[in-house]
Amino acid sequence: MDELLYFLQQTINGLTIGSTYALIAIGYTMVYGIIGMINFAHGEIYMIGTYIAFIVITGLAMMGIDNTLFLIVAALLVSMIVASAHGFAVERVAYRPVRGSKRLIALISAIGMSIFLQNYMRLAQGSRDKAIPNLLPGGWEFGGKGFVVNLSYMQVIIFVVTLLSMGALALFISRSRLGRACRACSQDRGMANLLGINTDLVISMTFVIGAALAAVAGLLLGMYYGVVNPYIGFLAGLKAFTAAVLGGIGSIPGAMLGGLILGIAEALTGGYLSSEYKDVVAFGLLILILLFRPWGILGKPEVEKI
Amino acid sequence: MAESELLSVRDLSMRFGGLLAVDQVNMDVRSGEVVSLIGPNGAGKTTVFNCISGFYRPTSGEVVFKGRPMQRLPGFKIARAGMVRTFQNVRLFKEMTVIENLLVAQHMQTERNLLKGLLLTKGYRRREQEVMERAAHWLERVGLIDFANREAGNLAYGQQRRLEIARCMVTQPRLLMLDEPAAGLNPNETRDLNQMIVRLKQEEGITVLLIEHDMSLVMDISDRIYVVNQGKPLADGTPQEIRCNPEVIKAYLGEE
Known about the structure:
The structure holds two protein chains of two kinds. Chain A contains eleven helices and four strands, in the order H-H-H-H-E-E-E-H-H-H-H-E-H-H-H. Chain A is mainly alpha-helical. Chain A has one domain (13-125, 151-292): ABC transporter involved in vitamin B12 uptake, BtuC. In chain A, a hairpin with a 4-residue loop joins strand 2 (139-143) and strand 3. Chain B is of the alpha/beta class. Chain B folds into two domains: 1-82 and 173-256, 3-Layer(aba) Sandwich (Rossmann fold), CATH 3.40.50; 91-172, P-loop containing nucleotide triphosphate hydrolases (Rossmann fold, 3-Layer(aba) Sandwich). Chain B has helices spanning 45-53, 75-81, 98-104, 114-119, 122-141, 157-169, 187-204, 215-221, 239-244, 246-253, and strands at residues 5-16, 19-30, 34-38, 60-65, 68-69, 83-85, 175-179, 207-211, 224-229, 232-237. In chain B, the strands form two sheets. Chain B has a six-stranded mixed sheet, sandwiched between helices. Chain B starts with a strand and ends with a helix. The A-B interface holds A 176-178, 180-181, 183-184, 187-188, 190-200 and B 53-55, 74-76, 78-80, 84-85, 87, 91, 93-96, 100, 103-105, 107-108, 110-111, 114, 117, 167, 171.
């Protein structure tokens, strides 16, 4: 019984982390789907989102506001808006001017942007850890005499917000006029343009959506872990990238699935082996998938376009 | 420039590195005409199309459509001006359904205001209705109404070709540019295509600019023909004139 409960606990922890990976991974996968580049600055957008959430929460708390719901909603909205503005600006400044050139050039531009954003936040906020208050302490406990399973309110919030965000995105992509244009662009950008779709606008929108979702993940993970520093974007970005590749880069359901699988794999490694092996397993998975199924779980093998 | 000229191409040139793919091409297309652009393989016909439709930015020269210069505009603005094209190879959105292909092509006509869309205002619903009806109308006309919810990539080749024309037509263009629409079609399908173009011209008053290798089709439906060879304009005139032009015969058949 205890064995089972322990497993359940690890799975819950894995799903929590995994759903935030999935949120970040969507930003990678959507951008890749449309312009075929890896936006390596995306992890930094997530980091900026976390900082903004931290600033809003502490700022409002200092003004004496202590309504939890209000604090969370305000932090969510402001960090989504600010992160979106960053996502938009990064595309305009660093990617659009080099879009016509070779892939490697865009990649280097992305890495440069990532270093720039990291240091810009370091200058603005300092490089020490900042504590984000957990606005929703506590949770439910259940289980037998031996092992007790903890399901914190925060974990529930993470599931719910992630599910809502993904549901909204899925609806947007499948039903709305812009979502339709977005799918058309990911299939044939040149043709979409010649049918009257402003493809530059669609690309900008992709960056904005990805950044907004990364900011959601930033707020949630920031409150869950309780700390933020300018370097968190690097690892989170790499993990989310792994999740996107695992699920099949370019595929939105793939990013969701990849995130969850990666989160669970990490949690189980931490629970049964040692938490020091978490990253080894995560990136080991990346290597395996690249070796044996480079198009990912839900992706399609790429046909070389001439 | 005469009043009735819909499209006018002046001294159009396109250079790729050391290769001058299009060299000083001039063309005029009048409203309501079917004009063909022909020439041997590699003559630069498709490059001319690419420059006119905004897929490439020409090295020099002018493209004037409805009296407005087009050569510096991005492709989507050219399309919105009323000029839309197909490619030699089928370029449908293969993973979208047939009807979605026609809806996405009407992107510019659909409601832009997200708020109105969310509130489902009357104007929004009316416009969505129009878009849907236009899509259905064209599916009917090209005989694909029964396949509306099929994935476009799963259609037969001839059907995909027809869907491409329907997708162009829902954008309500003034000028339809078809790049080898008969390529890969069997004689029956080619005859259907021939009739469809004639009907589009008569019933919709559409102007057609055509690249085609099927000479019987070209000679049959064209009002005028332009011939290019090795990027340079070679001749232009009515089908009768072109057929008898010794330069053209030489370019196609080689010298005796």
